[in-house]
Amino acid sequence: MSDGARILSEMNDRSREVFRRVVEGYLASGDPVGSRTLTRSLTEKISAATIRNVMQDLEYLGLLDSPHISAGRIPTQLGLRMFVDGLLEVGTVAAEDREKIEATMGSNESDVPTLLDRIGATLSGITHGASLVLTPKHEAPIKHIEFVSLGPDRALVVLVFADGHVENRVFTPPPGQTPSSMREAANFLNALAEGKTLTDLRKTVVHDMARRRQEIDSLARALVESGLAVWENAGEQSERLIVRGRANLLEGGAEAQDFDRIRSLFDDLERTRDIAEFLELAETGEGVRIFIGSENKLFSLSGSSLVVSPYMNADRKIIGAVGVIGPTRLNYGRIVPIVDYTAQLVGRMISERGKG
Fold it and tell me: Of 12, 198, 309, 312, which sits with the fewest C-beta atoms within 10 Å of its C-beta?
């Protein structure tokens, strides 16, 4: 049992209701919630003094905080985490929101990245946050691999897929490469590649390289290993992060520190080359995941939350993800089902089009 779940289970009904009302009030207004406000909404009629005592206890537990000298409280990151895990009531997707998402999906656009771009824009508009969409990798079986020397310190790896798709990636090869070592490296990979996707091939190569180190020339082995590093470097044509709705995060009278936080967020996004880490956040569990503040390891920013869900192809394999990012004061109950619904529709669309 997590610390949050343990604390929640040990609370009495009064403390639990005060805590829930404070968090819900804060998520709705963005303002600290005071004891006088709670006396008007609590199920049990108790005095403001009693409520203040309960709030002080919750603050001592690290669940609430006093941002100013005022008597109002706001939830801490731990408090938000505990609320999301144990008290959050998730609604259903409103008919109007569902229609907007489905209208985007129903587009005749045949290019999947372009369609996902539109979906990201729609998701951003509906949630009033920034949307993130990780487009699917190209996962067709590989037909042929070739290494081409472009100079002493530059080489090209050419990947030809069974469906006719071709990808070229430039990288820096190990020093001392010769035409024969490049041929040997390509022959080694092609012998393993038939019928395998790039993901499958990576796993096979790592295993076979360890088993057959004596059989493959050291130069060719170094070339294969450096080529693998290139394939694993996301952010190429095969994998792209689409971000829409940056301006939404600055609405509502943002203060100077908010601009700094938002700028930091997008600096992190643009610097992050290993976009696969974003997908790994979603792969650790099927369905929607919520990352609050500094729990979100992809961003150094601590003042934001990420609601993310993976989407799958027809083989139930995770190939991408959709998410919404905003301040920690997100309407989680509304946004969680929207992200979930969008991810399911995107997966269905990808499967029907035979992509991924």
Answer: 12
